[in-house]
Amino acid sequence: MFALLDCNNFYVSCERVFRPDLNSKPVIVLSNNDGCVISRSNEAKALGIPMGAPIFEYRELIEKENVEYFSANFSLYGDFSRRVMNTVANFCANIEIYSIDEVFIDFYKQQTNIPLDVFCSELRETILQWTGIPVSIGIAPTKALAKIANRIAKKFPDKTNHVYLIDTDEKRLKALRWIKVEDIWGIGRQYSRKLYRMNINTGYDFIQLPDSWIHKHMTIQGLRLKKELTGISCLTLDEVVDKKNISVGRTFEKELKTLQELNERISAFASKAAEKLRKQQSLCSSILIYIHSNFHKKNEVPFYRQSYITLPIQTASSIEISKYAKFALQKIYPEGQAIKKAGIILTNLLPNKYINLSLFEEFKEKEHILMNVIDDINKRYGDFSIHLASHEPSLKWRTLQQKLSPRYTTRWSDILKVK
DNA sequence: TCTGGGGTCCTAGGACCC
DNA sequence: TCTGGGGTCCTAGGACCC
């Protein structure tokens, strides 16, 4: 059996750990630049605030209903995520961390001496006690069914107590008749629209479709999904997988109109991306830089360009990557063009043990050591404590975060004081 | 005025090679 | 009329996820 454990309203729950007074109040967390809603408490959902909603459209409602809001505090959430995952790992041998707030557990390889749903209920209590984060757990023969079981656990907390087990065909079919196609893992907006048009409304309807139709219209992935829903497992647990791409990009707080300003940002993105790359002990062989205008402006022609560069030698050096990133940028940026978002994507990654020495360049051992030192310092003293001179991170372009909660768990000065 | 960020997989089509 | 065949690699684009 597989289980999917998922933190309830994760970012909001993290904020609530330190603000228990907010426990039954509507709370939301906002994206970078306080742009849109990325996490909602149940009370906020009940008020009709959708996921991803631009904040300015709901300002009135927020004030009227006294909705509490926070700027995203990702270092806090990352820290809580680690704590939750570590707790799970304490009791379960085979886990796949699927996202910041979700983890799959493989119970095919692990025998428990009590029934699985009891085991998972106890796990839930322990996580709540150790971290303060409430979770829901779905258990089923396949990953896709565990996703559905999880949804049921979350949807009917009174009946399920946040844990639901699908262990018979009867329960499986009942769940499939209940779930709408758009809520199935792997069926998004485009596919569900197509399915509804054919009067395919539930998971049960979906598995009645012929394989050939599914393959033709939804690729091999759709076919795998059908198998998973019939109870045949074809998605396995991926315990640790290196990222295949690493990207860093941001929407800016205002439009930028000079190469100089863009250079600073791109250079900082490149350093940050290179740092992520070194963390997973990889090298990259090519980079892609993209820039675009504000797509929400209706009266302007959208501007979008990208530049792809194959590096002469695989590297994880901030200095090298930053250098080529700026070169790529200067090739595509027309001075004066207003840019609202830009970013870098590192691609064609490979583990650094396979370093490929070019005939013309020697491996820069000194630079390698320098990068390690930079990573250590930044880890200890915070991002960009030390950085390349080309991206002076002055206050003027720190993102807007008007309501940032303290970094309770990752910064000494922000630790709660007990009086 | 104000609209997030970081990923994955699959397919089709073109370039290139023997 | 008739124009080789098969493989790989790369890229763009479209779908999806959290």
Distance between the termini: 47 Å
Mean pLDDT: 90
- Runs in which pLDDT lies below 50 for 5 or more consecutive residues are none
Order of helices and strands: EHEEHHEHEEHEHHEHHHHEHEEHEH
Strand order of the largest sheet: 5-6-1-7-8
> What structural category do the secondary elements indicate?
alpha+beta
> Count of DSSP helices?
14
Proportion of residues in helical segments? 40-55%
Question: How would the global form be characterised?
Answer: globular
CA-based gyration radius: 24 Å
Number of strands: 12
User: How much of the sequence is in beta strands?
Assistant: 15-25%
Task: Report the major sheet.
Answer: 5 strands, mixed
Describe this structure in words.
By secondary structure, the protein is of the alpha+beta class. It contains 14 helices and 12 strands. The strands form 3 sheets. Strands 5-6-1-7-8 form a 5-stranded mixed sheet. The longest helix is centred in the middle third of the chain and has 21 residues, at 259-279. It is globular, with a radius of gyration of 24 Å. It starts with a strand and ends in a 38-residue tail after the last helix. 32% of the residues are buried. The mean pLDDT is 90. The structure holds a DNA duplex (18 and 18 nucleotides).
